[in-house]
What does this fold into?
Amino acid sequence: IARKMATKVKNWINGAYADPVNAGAEWLDVDNPATGEVIAKVCVSSAADVDAAVKAAKEAFTKWSDMTVKMRAGIMFKVYHLLNEHAQELVDLIVKEHGKNRAEALAEVQKGLETAEYACAIPELISGRTQEVSRGVYCQDRRDPIGIVASIVPFNFPMMVPFWTLPIALVCGNCMILKPSEKVPLTMNRVAELLQKAGVPPGVFQIVNGTKDAVEAICDHPAIRAVTFVGSTKIAELVAKRCRALNKRVLALGGAKNNLVVAPDRHLDMASSDIVASFTGCTGQRCMAASAMLSLGHQQDILDEIVRKAGLMQPGQEAGQVGPVIDKMSADRILRYIDEAEKAGVKILLDGRTWVKERNPNCPEVCKKGNWVGPTVMLHNNRNDPALKDEIFGPVLSILEVHSREEAVEIQNSSVYGNAASIYTGSGAIAEWFTKRFHSGMLGVNIGVPVPREPFSFGGSQASKFGDMDITGDGGMEFFTERKKITTKWTPPPDKNWMN
It folds into this structure.
């Protein structure tokens, strides 16, 4: 890394690094998942730190929101180019603190930049309507910024998920407070510096690091008017209820269990490659990973291809390799699901436990440090197996053979989650049949990770989403603004009616 990495990750308040208000605040280790080494320490903030950020945001908001949307978009255009210039530096940070391979890290940066690029077009998208609704009477609507907003983000995408909200919120005229995961604070720490260099004024974007206390303080602070959250379903629901109790706008995205339905007429090579990429990409640590496959009948050829292609994957952090999982607790949880499935009679077609140093003294050399679990493929015969229903968040694919389309749809729609579902088929009629019946919010046809791209917004249903609207794209613009309707009359109308 060209830039020297900070040994202590402080908060970013009012355009400068700031120690926690509480002098006795705890500092947590930030570990490299690939090696287990401590690479930094991050502060654990309190409500006082959130209050300091809010105070700075209040001071910055009036001037920032008074700027024209074109002026704010101009600054975001500079942010876009500056982040592009520093893309490899950001990739290095993501690889080091998160563990994903370099190609995945670069794709993450590019996806974040895609949202920044979309935000640069907001001046063309945010325009309201004006209409003469009666003789001499005009109605106009416009979008105004909400004020101070906050985003609480997870570990699995240190830059992309913050950029689901940051560019749109700022260009719309809001001031944002970010609470990154304490496991991956370094990337956005550097982004904060680059935002300031691009011309984002002090107080407009701030970072408060920490854990539960910081999250609760953000939810409870009366001056923070809107909150987004991405993380587990359990915490998403708690955040949504806490914000709702205070009449705040909130969008809290939770977990997922996404099913891929595979029809016999699918394209063998494309489908098998997509499915392997979906469940192993980012080591399975993403809410859009296809962690369950429903096969319409027995299809030995695709089972063989999935196992063969996944079995060729190697541990590491270069393009095409499978990186470590974020920490030992996550690795232990993944292993527990595999162990319990095997005890219940599930057939292990590919065993990723061979990458685990505690299980295999002859594991690959790179796996002898850090937190590694290899691609695992399991064939089930009971639809109620926990690994088929729970979010495991690792490189594990559970396969179940079903007897009919109706059974496949019933299994998918009976899930408590509703993020994504996909169908692999060569038939438009079969694809349409499934997409009309899936209940999930994001659907794919021959797509293993059906993430919408701007201007389309991201959002699931059921226990995968709590709160208002969607995130990113036009849903993000709707979330971070409030509509004001203005009715005007300047001269007496030539004829009178109830309206004028």
Summary: Residues 345 and 380 are 8 Å apart (CA to CA). The radius of gyration is 24 Å. The mean pLDDT is 95.
